[in-house]
């Protein structure tokens, strides 16, 4: 009898366990059915995507502001510096005298040349007078010879004397021309002992002071033109094909934008940077040597889709995921590769097709396989 009671108790426990398990399973199935029904009614905002053949990106390239013209100024001849009339930072104008050499020897040479010219002029006047006298004598003896009042010998002597005087006159004229040319050479040497401004600009550097000995061509002053400046910007070779002279571009310096016009693109590639140099003209108060940035809209020929950033979810191996609502209003997860990012959107490539409906926002509320109620985003 004791054995029958033990057996009855075991049967009671077994049925009690089965009842509890059935209750738990029933509650779980009910909860799952409730959750499924509830989630099937979630409204999900979506956008429809279309494939684009390219995207435009804004890239920035650095460059320097340089003067349109600059020059290292020096004397064409050597000598001792007598005076440097201009200091650094001073604005000078075209033709203005900037520096001189000691000119004592040169001035003496010019005075000597002046004397040679004066002497040559006087000699020319004397030769002209002698020639005119010889002409008159020859004409008078010719008339007497015709009348038989003088001998042929006398006339021939007068005629030969006229030829000699004319030759002497030619020599005098040549001597005057040579003296004038010599004087011009001395004046040119005197001019070479000065430095004048070839254009209007500002003295950037002063290399020497009075009393210094300089050689021909040695820099004395550096002059830069600051009324007109230009920027030299290094750009990649493929971008040069998209830029046209005369095009308008924006340069940025100290967070300020300045309008610039492309003048030309130099044909030679810089061996250090492997870039071409774009020369841009600008009318701006930017210090020479300052670093500026050029912003360029560059077209990249690559197919892909524009997606809102809010549609992305973290993926695997550097990829991103997006939630796609299929024809059955069920969520699918697709992987994409982001190739370009902007403030509110990205350009991506991946397993997407035209007219796919992409969950625009609230991707954390849905999971793959979940049915949703799609709501088109109107924005």
Question: How would you explain this protein's 3D organization?
Answer:
The protein is α+β, with helices and mostly antiparallel strands. The protein has 3 domains: 39-54 and 302-376, conserved putative lor/sdh protein from methanococcus maripaludis s2 fold (Beta Barrel), CATH 2.40.420.20; 58-69 and 227-300, Beta Barrel (Elongation Factor Tu (Ef-tu), domain 3); 103-192, Helix Hairpins, CATH 1.10.287. Helices cover 33% and strands 35% of the residues. Strands 1, 2, 17, 18, 19, 20, 21, 22 and 23 form a 9-stranded mixed beta sheet that branches. Strands 3-12-15-14-13-16 form a 6-stranded antiparallel barrel. It has a 4-stranded antiparallel beta sheet with strand order 4-11-9-6, with no helix packed on it. Helix 2 (104-147) runs antiparallel to helix 3.
Describe the largest sheet.
9 strands, mixed
Cα distance spanning the termini? 83 Å
Mean pLDDT: 86
Number of helices: 4
Short key terms for the protein model shown above:
nine-stranded mixed sheet, Elongation Factor Tu (Ef-tu), domain 3, single chain, alpha+beta, 379 residues, disordered N terminus, six-stranded antiparallel barrel, conserved putative lor/sdh protein from methanococcus maripaludis s2 fold, 4 helices, Helix Hairpins
Explain the layout of strands and helices.
Layout: H1 2-39, E1 43-48, E2 51-52, E3 55-67, E4 70-74, E5 79-84, E6 91-92, E7 97-101, H2 104-147, H3 152-191, E8 194-196, E9 201-206, E10 213-214, E11 219-224, E12 229-235, H4 237-240, E13 248-253, E14 256-265, E15 276-282, E16 291-300, E17 304-308, E18 313-314, E19 320-325, E20 331-341, E21 345-350, E22 357-359, E23 373-376
Helix pairs in contact: 2-3
